[in-house]
Every structure is written in C-alpha cells, then in structure tokens.
Amino acid sequence: MASATLQIDLDAVLANWRALDALSGAACETAAVVKADAYGLGATRVARALMRAGVRKFFVALAEEGAALRQGLGEAPEIYVLSGHMAGDTEMIADLDLTPMLNALEQVTRHFEALPGTPFGVQLDTGMNRLGMEAGEWAAVAPIVMGAGPKLLMSHLACADEPEHGANATQLAEFHRLTDGTGVPRSFAATGGIMLGREYTFDLTRPGIGLYGGAPFAAARPVVRLSLPVVQVREVLAGETVGYGCAWRAAEDSRIATVAAGYADGLARALSAKATLFADGTPCPLVGRVSMDLITVDVTQLETVPDTLEILCPEQGVDALAAVAGTIGYEILTSLGARYTRRYAGGAA
Known about the structure:
The protein folds into 2 domains: about 30-210, Alanine racemase (TIM Barrel), CATH 3.20.20.10; about 225-345, Lyase, Ornithine Decarboxylase, Chain A, domain 1, CATH 2.40.37. The protein has helices spanning about 10-25, 35-40, 45-55, 65-75, 90-95, 105-115, 135-145, 165-180, 190-195, 320-325, 330-335, and strands spanning about 5-10, 30, 30-35, 55-60, 80, 100, 120-125, 155, 185, 205, 225-235, 240, 250, 255-260, 275-280, 280-285, 295-300, 310, 340-345. Helix content is about 30%, strand content about 25%. The strands form 4 sheets. Strands 1, 11, 14, 15, 16, 17, 18 and 19 form an 8-stranded mixed β-sheet that branches. It has a 7-stranded parallel β-sheet with strand order 3-4-5-6-7-8-9. The chain is built from 11 helices and 19 strands. It is elongated, with a radius of gyration of 23 Å. The longest helix has 15 residues, at about 10-25. A hairpin with a 6-residue loop joins strand 16 and strand 17. The protein is α/β, with parallel strands linked by helices.
C-alpha cells in the first residue's frame, strides 16, 4: 500500500482535554475547538470521543463546519460558529441549531432580522484587531444585544503563547471593562490563555491546539504518529545526485529510500534537505528536495530498511518538525493531507 498512515490517539486527546479542564478550574466549563476538521485529525471522530468524556460545547470556524459536525454528533451539543452569521448562513444556522458568535453590527442586524429569538453569542475585540466588535461599536449596540439574551461573550488573546507579553494584561483589563456586570457567561482563554492562569479562564475555556499535542501546552500527550511507506530503495554511487535540480550529491556510496509523501500531503518544501525521518528510533536524513508525492531519505546506516519510515513519532513531535520547517505546530497538523489513511485508537470515556 502506497498510502501513508496517520495514527490518531484519541485517548491522548481525552487526556489532554482533562488536563486542560483541570487547569481551567472547577467553576469553569471546558469546551473544545474542532475547527479545520479538528486541526486535520477528523472533527467528527475527535468530537464524538470528547462528547463521551463530557464535552458539551464545540467551536468551529465556519457555518459549513458546524453543519458537518451537527450531522456527525446529533442534537445534543452546542456548536458555536466563530465567523458569526455570514450572508448565506441563515438556513444552516436555523436548521442545524448553530450558535453564531456575532462579530459586527452588520451581523447583529442580519441575525436579529432573519432569525429573531434564536441563540447567538458576541465576540468582542479587546486588542487583536481581527474579529469582534470594537469598544465603540459595542457600546452603541449593547443595550439591544443584551436585551436579546446572548449565550456567551468572548474575546481572543493575541499573545497568549508569550506569558510575559504586556498585551495579555491589557486585553484582560479591556475584557473586564467591556463585560463586567453583564451577567452573561464569558470566554477569554484558548489553550494559551489557560496556561496564563485562572484570572484568564472566566466561565468557559476553548482549548484547541493543546488537545492535539501542540505548544504552548508543554505537558500535552502526543496525539499523532505519521508513518510513510518506502516505495523503492536504490544504491547511489559517490558523486551521483538525487531528485529535482540535482540538489543533493552523494559524498560516498549510499542507499536512498524513495518514500511516498510530499508537499501534496502537507510536507512543506521547506523541509527539503533539513528534515529527519526515523526507523525504529534511528534517525535518517531527508536528502534532496521535497516533491509533490515523494521524498528521498538516506538509509545507508540501516542494516535492514523497514517498510515505513516515521516523520511524526515519539522522537519528533509536531512542534519539533515545525521548527525544522520554520513554522508552527498548528500548520503541520492542519496541513496533513487527505491521502493519509487515518487510523484511530482509543476514545472510550
């Protein structure tokens, strides 16, 4: 089989959620962010396992993601849509009982006119300047919005992964200023915010990357393992080159494995001649360029070349691979390709 295998440990996801739930505090509910197909790992499978563990609220980026999740989970959980109520979303929001997080006056008007009396929340901008109502806009509409009974008020931290950054305290103070005394449940912290401490957790936290084994949750259990099949092994003589552009030249006689994965599968070209794969813990360097479907790996030091080589494994997690590529673990996870055969383990409550 030439398809690579992505192994997903649902027990690790549940352990990570329970740990983040404990850090959030007993008085705080812990939701789960499953946008971007649960960061590439399969939203329905991940969310079903989390539901069995007690999660009752999920966050997605788009109404279309919410619709797919509702169809996979049934009527029980609450599904919040971070992009709010966009033009064309009304039917999905109404028919599938989605809760849009309204981000602007335009969305407030659309929601109240199209779906009066249906659930909604409000996202406020406390300094990130990305999504959410700014202070002046909120002041103008707050009496009307609060009278309609929002289910949640939320904001998002810009620098939560940098605990000493002054923006964290500034945003926290602004969130208090905009929401204190409203009596509405509040959410301010995703994974990084949970790491900042209880003053950031309020009534509901929204862990995402920490569930899937990524920084800044340093204590997270690894969730994914990616095994890539070896298609062919060839002898390359000293002085011969490998791959596009003749980018790698053998300094000595070598054995090179051609492995079935490439940038079409989320292995960025930035990994060319930098990444390491592993054979039962033995490091094997990627040589030459990453191409669309294939990479080439120096396996000269191996007595026996296995059927697969691993690029995500105990020796190299998502953040370690991200560092090699000059990116972040989020991008590694969400780029994992559709051609991978996903195999799930665990997940029982």
